[in-house]
Every structure is written in C-alpha cells, then in structure tokens.
Amino acid sequence: MSMTLEHVNCIYSADTNHSVHALKDICLTIGDGEFIGLIGHTGCGKSTLVQHLNGLISPTDGHIYYNGEDINAKDFNRKELRGNVGLVFQYPEHQLFENDVFADVCFGPKNLGLDKKEVELRAYEALHSVGFPDEEFYSSPFELSGGQKRRVAIAGVLAMKPKILILDEPTAGLDPQGREDILELISDLHRNENMTIILVSHSMDDVADYAERLIVMDHGSILYDDVPQEVFKNVRELERMGLAVPEVTYIMRSLKRNGYEVDDTITKIDDAVEQILKLWSEK
Amino acid sequence: MVREITIGQYYDEESVIHRLDPRVKLVATLVYIVAIFVVDSIAGYALVALFLAACIMLSKVPVKYIVKGLKPVMIILLLTVVFNMLLTPGETLFKFGIINISKEGLKAGSTMALRLILLITGSSLMTLTTTPNNLTDGMEKLLNPLKYIKVPVHEIAMMMSIALRFIPILLEETDIIMKAQMARGADFESGNIFKRAKAMVPLLVPLFVSAFRRANDLAMAMEARCYRGGDGRTKMKPLKYLRRDYIAYAIIWLFLAGCIVLRILL
Amino acid sequence: MGIIKTEKLSYEYIRRDDEGNVSGVTRAVDDVSIDVTQGEFIAILGHNGSGKSTLAKHINAILTPSEGEIWVDGINTAEAARIWDVRQKAGMVFQNPDNQIIGQLVEEDVGFGPENLGVPTDQIWERVEESLKLLGMLEYSKHSPNKLSGGQKQRVSIAGVLAMHPKCIIFDEPTAMLDPHGRREVVRAARALNDVEKITIVLITHYMEETIYADRLFVMDHGRIAMEGTPKEIFSQVEKLEELRLGVPQATKVAYELKKAGMPIPDGILTRQELREALKACL
Lengths: 283, 266, 283
Known about the structure:
Strand content of chain C: 15-25%
Shape of chain C: globular
Low-confidence stretches of chain B: none
Number of helices of chain B: 11
Radius of gyration of chain C: 20 Å
Helix content of chain B: 55-70%
Oligomer: heterotrimer
Distance between the termini of chain C: 48 Å
C-alpha cells in the first residue's frame, strides 16, 4: 500500500500569459503508516500537491501511482481512491451542510455506495474516534463551537475509512487548546489505526512534535525531504523561506555556538530541558 | 471552469475610451442600442458597424479578446437565428420534410443575428473599458434624480459595487467547497437532471451559509468605519465632466441623428 | 479618565426559541472594569469563547453593555447621538481579511472611512497616501485587494482605519487566519503605530507570542478578567496559565521547567534572547 509520484508537474492556465508553474518535477514515495509533515509558506504548491494525491487535480505532466496503478488512467476507479485517500481541506467546517451532525458524517460513506447499516456504523465510529459527544449527534452542525465543527468535519472524512489521511492546515484559526486537541487526535489516529498521515502546515511548531518525516516545499519544488532533526539544521534556508525552526532549536543552537556540548537539532521542549539540566549538573 | 467567462470583464489599458466619464459611456451605450433598432438598411447597419469598429480601435482592446468573450453567448445566438429562420412564414427557399426555410425567415434570422452581435459587442465594450466601481459611480450619479421619488439610488449602487467585489471571492469559494465535497465522494457530473440538482445541495448550502457570514461581517466592518448611508458622504473620486466628455456626447448624438436620417431617406 | 474606561461592564447574549421566548442567557462579558491610558499598548489574551471579542466590540460601540458602562475618550457609548464620534475615535480591525475590505482597489478601500466622515476630496487623498505609506502599502494602491496576501490585506484594513485619524485602534484577532509571515507583518504594524504615532492599541489574540511587547496584558476567562499585569508578571505564572488552557511561549516554558528542576533562572523570561542570557549566567 503506497503512493508514488513520478516527475509530476502542474501548470495552471497553461496557455495564457499568466500561467503558474505550481508543481515542478515532484518525485515522491509515501510509504505505509508514515507520519509526514508537509511544510511551506503560502503559495509554495503544498495544497496543489495534496489535491493531486486523490485525483482532484490531474498533473499536467507525470504520473501518480496508488498501489502500482496510475490514478489518472481512464479506467481507474476515482471514487474508490477518494475513499482510500481522505483529504481534509483547510477550514473543513465550511463544507458542513446537513441538518444534523450525524447525517453530515454519513455523507461520505453514503457516496461510496455502502448499505445503510454500514454507513451508520462508520459514521458512529468516526464521531467516536474524534471524541464527539453522543448527546450532540442530532444537533445542527451550524450551532457548534469552532473546535467542535472541525471535529465533525474531520469525522466526515474518517467515516470513509481512508488508508491515507491528508489534513491541510487542520489547526488554522483555532486557539492553543483547540490546536493541541486536534493534533493529539491526529496523532492518536496514526498510532492506534496505523493510518498514514500527511499533515500540511506552515507552522513548524505544529509538525515538529509529531511528524517522523518532513517535506519542505518552496516555489513548487521539494527542497528537503528528511527526518525533522536533519531538516532543521538548515536554519538559514528555512528562514529565507519565511519558515522559522521551533524556538527550542534556536535556544540549543545558541548554546552550542557559545561552546556548550549540546545537540542543536533538538525540537522538543522536554529534550532541551533534559540536556540543559545535564550540562548544569556536570558543571 | 466558471472563471473562464471573460465577456465584459474589465480590460486594463490606457485609451481615450477608458478615460471617458462613465456617465458618457452609459448614455452612449443606451443611444447606441437605440440606434441599432432605428436602422433598417444595409447602409444603416454599415454605419453602426463602422461606429463600433471606430470605438473598438480607439479603446485599444484587442479584437481577439472581444471575440473570445463572445463564445459563451454563441449558442444563444445560433438558437435565435435558427428559430427565426424556421418559424417565419413566407416564400419557401428550401424544404426538407417538415422543415421549411423561407426567404423572409432567412432575412429575419440574419438581421436578428447581426443586431445581437452589434448589441452584445457594443455593450460589452462599455464594461471592458470601465472599472466596475466607476460604472456604479456613474450609475449612481445618472440615476440621482430618482432619489426624489424615494428610490434608494445610493444604496443600490453600493450593493452593486459590493456584489462585484465579492464575486471573485465567492467563485473561489465555490471551487473549494466543490472539491471538498468531491473528496467526500460527491459526484457533480453524472446522472440525470434531477440527480444533478440534488447533488448541488451539498454545494449550495455551505455557499449560502458562507455568504451570510460574510455579509454579517462586512456589515459590521462598514458600521465600524462610520458608514451610515449616502447622506453627508463625500467622494474620493467625484465624477467631473471634462472637454473630451462633451465632445463624446456631441459625437454620439450626431451618430444617432445620422441613423435616423438614413432610416427616413432609405 | 483614560481613553478607554469600563466600569462593571457585563454583556448577555439572549437566545430565543422559535416563538421568541427566552431560552437561554449567556453572560459573555462579566463584570469587567479596565482603564486604558492614552498611548498604551494593551493586549487581551484568552481562548475562544472567553469573551474577549465581545468586550472589544463594546469599545467601538458595535455592542452596548447589558449592565455597567464604558467610556471612549470620555464619551459614554450608550449615548446614541454620539455613536459616530466613538467609532471615529476607536477604529477596529477584524479577523477575516476578506470580509472587511469594501473597495475594489486598495486606495478606494482606505478612502472609504474618510468618505463616510465627510472629509473633503483632496484631504481624502492626502489621508489615503499618508496611511498607505505608514503601512508600507503605497506601491499597491492601484491593486485589487483580491490579489494580495493575507498579511497585506490586513495592512490595508489597518490603513483604512488609520485614515479616519483614530485615537485608538482595536485589533480583534487580526492574525488568527494568517500564516506566520502575515502574523509578523500585522504585529509589527501595530507596534509601529503605537511607537511612532502614539495611537493606543488594544490587541486581542490567542497567540501569546504576540502579547509579549504589550505594556499591559489582560487574560480573560469565562467573561472575566482572570489575570492582569505586565507580560513578565503574567508569564511568570506558568501553572495558572496552563490551568486556563493557554500555555506559554516556548522560551518561557523551558525556563520554567529548568527552574522547577532547581536551576537559578529568573522569573518571567519571554524571549529566547532573555533565556540565552540567563543560561549564560548560570552555566
């Protein structure tokens, strides 16, 4: 179960004078059960890239294979693909439309052509896995708080039982607690259901704590594709792109510059505290 | 998809026509439309076409761009011509089975097509050379006398200009919601007309919700910036007639007079 | 009396059912008394639903108190006849950059406020140019707002408020929908207006990093002022902030953890520079 992109290019408004080369020769393999952070500033092509992964946009050039099958081939079952590759858009609560929460979450599985019992079972499971309270199942999605709406919207995609879950800026506009809750939820899905996760973000702090692999995009190309520690070594380059590294990494770097023996690729607060305390006790 | 319709979309260029006061262009367009229906001879149509060609040349808008904009209305145009040809009784030219094309029908059809092309090209030239904001300003000023019979002229103009500002935003939003629902397996493209209409619900409901939310926000933002209707309001860009505007008025009235003369003489 | 003064201000949202009967009352702001001096930079921090936006809308007279009173530059906002004076003196920048721009060109939007105030045409142009210059947006004056980035749109909105020559600007979560780069643009603009133009700033946000430059910080919770003080005083109380589900900047968090483990680190560290100095002193 994997996804492979081979020399994918995407050009918007190709034959006009305002054409945009949104993706440039992207080659990528997404393995089973990975947790990938996809990072880049606004307009770097990350949203365009993820929309290729479930066939919403077809590449101008190049091929995308899911389990070895070309997803843009004529006889390929696109609908099944969209069930397997779930995409949660930015501000997903804006697509809620049904009278009650439960019906809205049923929309996805119903479109997959499942029978009623299976649809409802999946909706129920999905709402449970996002921690949505039972007694609110039949309230209107428009009357929930921002954080709750977002959970419902994510459940709407989870109910399709995707193997790969892509989330485009899932924490945008939420307060710190809401952000943490959503990120914890995603991390749980990865751990418990072994779902492949692609987390798209422009905030390093969001992805640093969770992702096992970071892909940094700039001007439609992949600039880095490595474990977070390695990527964060390129502080200068990242800053040039308007992407700061996590605050703790900066702290460790400045310590190292001042001659202390510390690991300057640390991205988590706990690790940083541990190292500094070790230095202090050795003094 | 939706964004490919370019008919009448403002084309930025420096030209005399672009610089004319929007009121002149509005009046001129009305006069021009009247002229199209005044003339009834080949010489008359030639005069109108010549006038239009001169305006297009002065406006520096590429003919290619205008023709491209006409494409979406081509079907309507063809239908009108065909219906006119088939449904006008008269001397038979061709006959295939029950289909009967008469001489009068052919004439009526081609006249109608000519008029429509002149009409659409002429009026789209106005929107091609006038920014939407300028246009609403012009309309507000022209319709101002209606204020005395309690027509809310300022409010209508404000509504139009807000609508114009939000069209691109809502189009983009439509695109995103459509994709988001497609990611949940929605199908907007297949099935019969009823199925397709039903498939629009997941698109239209969120779009309405969002439009109302935006309206609410915008109203608050406008009030916070002291907006309280047209009274006591000054203009950043007040409309003022210049010499070129008076000359343009003279030309357009002369043109109409010419058309009337041709109608009487021929 | 300061530029903004509230006394026991409370605001209740009243929900009604289909027949118009009162079905519930939410006390969004509860007994808030604050006094802001002309030229101060105030930040209000709180998670979603804490009442901070409701409070902000009172300063601009969009809402008037259910109980208690509020004065802006000495004017009681309940005086209906002077509502436009209040709105001219206290301008407001909102969260969604798209939903507050009225003009189709940048300059037309900035001119919208002065037009409403009945400012003569030539002075409108002066104000527009001056405001756009201050926000660094003069070169975009003939652009359509739709083509700008989020941060640029917010700068246009700020210029639009500035052109009304207010004494005070309230920023109601202006950064919630922006990327990190846009967030920095907006906060920098707010600080510059305070430093250079001496305009009183009220910044409402749920990003604590944005509040560290404020003269005074209020933390709101359940409609009440839960904490008040300088950023240093507030961020020394890490436990209390975490209890309010707000968290602290990463540098503060590291300092706090180190201190808890016994290191002699001073209280109230806000930036990584401060932490670096503190670490140098004890390592």
